Amino acid sequence: MNKNSPPQEVLDKHRITKFLIENEAIMNWNILKKCILMLILGAAVHVTWIIWKVSVLLMPNLWQWVDLPLLKFQLGLNVVFLVLMLLLIYPCYAWKDRRWAQVVLPYISVGLFVVSLCRDGYVVGVLSPATMTAYVSLVTVGLVLFPRAIVYSAFLPATAYLTGCMFLSQWGYIPYSPVFHITSYYFNNDFWLISMAFFIAPILITCLVLFEILLSQWRYRERLIKKLSQIDPLTNLFNRRQINQCLDQIVQEHEQNYALVLLDLDHFKFINDDYGHHKGDETLVRVAEVLNMHLRDSDVVGRFGGEEFILILHKSNLEQATQAAERCRSAIQALEIYSDDGEKIHVTASFGIAISHAELRPQQLLSQADKALYEAKASGRNRVKTFTLKAQPDTATAPL
């Protein structure tokens, strides 16, 4: 080993750190985990406002600049919003795997966050730098983290509220920046109000349009990358990584009625050796097409590695799974694939089936399907076998 190279322990730590950073990117979090982050940041914002208001109350020389009763009322509201945000973190964490929570809680979390900021935005001045900065920042960051429907469901009412406050304050129905005693002539001047709207509106609209375009392109790219990471490039089936995610989803949804089927092409090595790897690839592609053609839309088909495929048959009992496997076996045997010299290439596959049980996890079921596949190979290939607790070979090597 090179004396100047870092020790293996350092390299291992670097790999682990890199893995955690790449797999723990905020954009890859589920929606409720993003809600928790937003609620924590919102709570931190309210803490800073509470500190500022308490500091003002403790300094009598500043009382001349503020409306003390309103300041105290706002302090109480900040405490209420702080408590609500902290309390909402628990259901977002406890129910993170429930579908209804993933639909409902983001709207509640984003709505609570925006309502609290809108209230304080009016109090310090709708057109103040603080309010406008918060407004634009929340919209742009929100569109990155959350689906558009959630963001705009809060953004549009917030826009209407702030716009209404701006005009009502200009017309004299409500005070502008009521927490401060600094209202002056230009706050109630039509020219100043129209000028601010003239400068702010085009910039805001332009930024949002450009951001929407960039966001759409970025999300399309993310969807494309995600799809490519899930698909086997040769057969266009799910790859092993995505199959494992499907099995994890079965665990999360507590699905009970399903079957796992492993199938392996018989003597596939000889196809590659005798007819060339391009014919081996063609065989894999044709088999993938056959599997997709003879299964239901609700079933999952994946390439598990090499010449091995996996089927996840949802809502299937032993009889249904066996019938599906037999259909696929017969269709594979009937494939007409020819070598470059016109010789027919005979293709068959062996199948192993395992049926779900309440006490078994998918990975255990996968092991049972593998044992059934071995039995199909050992029994002469080109057949379907179902895992049973009887007559399982203890030690043996699968035939070539």
From TrEMBL:
Transmembrane intervals: 35-55, 75-93, 100-117, 123-146, 151-171, 191-215
Domain GGDEF, residue spans: 256-389
Swiss-Prot/TrEMBL keywords: Membrane, Transmembrane, Transmembrane helix
The protein's name in its UniProt record: diguanylate cyclase
InterPro entries according to UniProt: Diguanylate_Cyclase, GGDEF_dom, Nucleotide_cyclase, Rev_trsase/Diguanyl_cyclase
Gene Ontology cellular component annotations, sorted alphabetically: plasma membrane
A Pfam family annotated for this UniProt entry: GGDEF
PROSITE patterns reported in the protein's UniProt record: GGDEF
Reactions it catalyzes: 2 GTP = 3',3'-c-di-GMP + 2 diphosphate
Broadest EC class assigned to this enzyme: transferase
An example molecular function term from Gene Ontology annotations: diguanylate cyclase activity
EC number: 2.7.7.65
Gene Ontology biological process: cell adhesion involved in single-species biofilm formation; negative regulation of bacterial-type flagellum-dependent cell motility
Keyword Methyltransferase among UniProt keywords: no
Cofactor(s) the protein requires to work: Mg(2+)
Family annotation (CDD domains): GGDEF
Nucleus recorded as keyword: no
